[in-house]
Amino acid sequence: MFKLSSTLFSITCTYLSDEGQVFIWDVKSRRCLNKFTDEGCLHGTSIAVSKNSQYIACGSNSGVVNVYAHDDCIRETSPKPLKAIMNLVTPATSLAFNPTTEILAMASNISDDALKLVHIPSFTVFSNFPVFRRKLLYLAYCMDFSPRSGYFSIANNKGKALLYRLKHYSDF
């Protein structure tokens, strides 16, 4: 028996257990396609699959977010991450890919303003987000991108939903 930390539905259903085990399920046939351990993870906290099913991102209690190639996770029992992103120092409690799979948002609801955006093709963290002179984000509880990535929204512990315009994208 394991404790479930996070779940999501995608083309293949994916689960992340408390111990860092990732299970990929085919919901239609009700069987597990593969199981692997998130590298270096002792306590899994969040999981996300890119909209094009190219990447799986797994967040951990240490703040490390591992990004894997989805195909490797289906075929291999010990896939190696494409990148281990170590820009959070508190648990990575929320992960979200934008619809074009160019950006991965990662946040922690343990520390104020702990949110980072990662450019996926290069796996570099945007240094200009968030940039504030005073606290504004507080604890990020959930976040998502609009259908064409023109907007990014964050819900925080103060009951606010913050909306940011991403001007790189011309449409909403």
Automatic annotation (TrEMBL):
Any one GO biological process: rRNA processing
Keyword terms of this UniProt record: Nucleus, Repeat, rRNA processing, WD repeat
UniProt keyword annotation of Repeat present: yes
Highest taxon listed in the record's lineage: Eukaryota
Cellular location(s): Nucleus, Nucleolus
GO annotations of cellular component type: Pwp2p-containing subcomplex of 90S preribosome; small-subunit processome
Listed SUPFAM superfamilies: WD40 repeat-like
Chief localization: nucleus
PANTHER family from the UniProt entry: U3 SMALL NUCLEOLAR RNA-ASSOCIATED PROTEIN 18 HOMOLOG (PTHR18359:SF0), WD-REPEAT PROTEIN-RELATED (PTHR18359)
The protein's name in its UniProt record: Anaphase-promoting complex subunit 4 WD40 domain-containing protein
Species: Micrurus spixii
